[in-house]
Design goal:
Blueprint lengths: L3 H30 L1 H5 L6 E4 L2 E8 L5 E7 L7 E7 L2 H12 L27 E7 L3 E5 L6 E7 L8 E3 L3 E2 L8 H6 L3 H7 L9 H34 L3 H6 L4 H33 L6 H28 L3 H24 L17 H5 L6 H23 L6
Antiparallel strand pairs: 1-2, 2-3, 3-6, 4-5, 4-7, 7-8, 7-9
Helix pairs in contact: 1-6, 1-8, 5-10, 6-8, 6-9, 6-10, 8-9, 8-12, 9-10, 9-12
Length: 401
């Protein structure tokens, strides 16, 4: 079946579509290539308690992980004893002893100058002795699968009572943090765009999800809404509709070819930034998370199709292209604002069902690699409904010469 109107529509719009696709292609490359600059600001993995900090510093000479344990000094403490254990119950045991105000270890141990070197002295307690002294940090390689660390603050030079015990920090709680994590914590702007999902800014996937995909769908929808909004109104406004219908085009065929052309624009505009994030990842020497990239772009298609359907309805109802564009921009921005309000407010969670943007879950797509069937089925149903309404209205529309 020949589709001259489809070909003409694609041909007339090809320059604009290609230019917009190239712009998003370059934008995607730029965002991904910024990742190494941001990653330099990321700290080593760390776990933190009140006044105590455990940092992973890399691989030591023996091949084991190398750590730094640091703590805040406390008023009146003469000794700081850093300890580690594999069993968390050992830490609980120490807390019980301190709360009972009992002597923790034989006081004579403090008189042994080689206490640090002879770490087996405390092995019967299941404890690894890391440090004894007045300092406030110790560097060490983890041995014997020790994973939990704490510090005793001794206030007497003769024995270990009275003594205070710090919080415990664990290698199981190590996490990369940066000033950007502090900035985004409880940040209303961040929550407005991405909701309450926690994204790891230190990983490439998390960085791209926050910096690119949080705004990508809005860029896509704005462009497609403008293009689809002029699909019918343009021909009515320039008086070419009568000529088209007089050449044998049925109204259904006209609408079908217009919808197909919008789908081609959708695919073309989506391909540019997809290629951009892939090439950008190659440029920075990272492994390409092709699956997360692909599923995130695929997840944007159903919502984009729904906005195409809405724009087709508006284009049939409104004959002036400028008014169609203004109305569609109002709809798109309004939908986005509703999503932001739903993400920010404790009372407006129900509002997410009123926004099509809520069916695009960046964290779920990019991090979990999961495409929720609801986020596909609902927008596609809406696309079919709006497209059907556009066809129905156009069949009955009076076209004035």
């Amino acid at each position: 079946m020949k589709m001259p109107l489809f070909k003409v529509t694609v041909k007339d719009s090809r320059k604009g579509v290609i230019i917009y696709s190239i712009i998003l292609f370059l934008y995607a490359i730029l965002i991904v290539m910024m990742y190494p600059m941001f990653s330099d600001e990321f700290s080593d993995p760390m776990a933190q308690g009140e006044g105590i900090l455990l940092q992973e510093e890399g691989i030591g000479e023996s091949g084991e992980m190398y750590f730094n344990l640091s703590w805040d000094a406390r008023v009146g403490s003469s000794y700081h004893i850093a300890m580690g254990a594999k069993d968390p119950m050992v830490y609980t045991y120490f807390l019980g002893i301190v709360q009972g105000n009992e002597t923790v270890i034989d006081p004579d141990l403090l008189q042994l100058e080689d206490l640090i070197d002879n770490r087996s002295l405390l092995s019967s307690y299941g404890i690894e002795l890391l440090y004894l002294g007045a300092g406030e940090e110790v560097h060490f390689e983890r041995i014997n699968e020790t994973s939990l660390f704490w510090v005793l603050f001794v206030t007497s030079e003769m024995n270990l009572t009275p003594v205070e015990v710090s919080d415990a920090v664990s290698t199981m709680d190590l996490a990369v943090t940066s000033m950007f994590d502090d900035y985004m914590e409880d940040n209303p702007v961040y929550e407005g765009f991405l909701g309450t999902d926690v994204l790891d800014f230190s990983t490439l996937e998390g960085f791209v999800a926050i910096e690119f995909f949080s705004i990508w769908l809005l860029f896509l929808v704005i462009f497609l809404s403008i293009k689809a909004g002029g699909a019918v109104a343009k021909h009515i406004e320039d008086k070419s509709m009568d000529i088209l219908l007089a050449t044998g085009y049925s109204r259904d065929r006209f609408m079908m070819e217009k919808v197909l052309s919008q789908i081609v624009f959708l695919i073309t505009v989506s391909f540019g930034p997809f290629l951009g994030v892939v090439i950008g990842t190659l440029f920075i020497g990272e492994s390409i998370p092709l699956g997360p990239y692909a599923i995130t772009f695929l997840g944007s298609i159903p919502i984009a199709l729904t906005f195409i359907g809405i724009a087709m309805v508006v284009s049939v109802l409104v004959d002036e292209g400028a008014k169609v564009t203004a109305l569609m921009m109002g709809i798109v921005v309004g939908q986005y604002v509703v999503m932001v309000i739903a993400n920010l407010s404790s009372w407006g969670d129900w509002m997410k069902y009123l926004s099509l943007f809520s069916y695009f879950n960046t964290s779920e797509l990019m991090i979990d690699n999961y495409l929720d069937p609801v986020n596909v089925i609902v927008p596609l149903i809406l696309f079919v409904i709006f497209s059907g309404v556009a066809f129905f209205l156009f069949r009955r529309k009076e076209i004035h010469a």
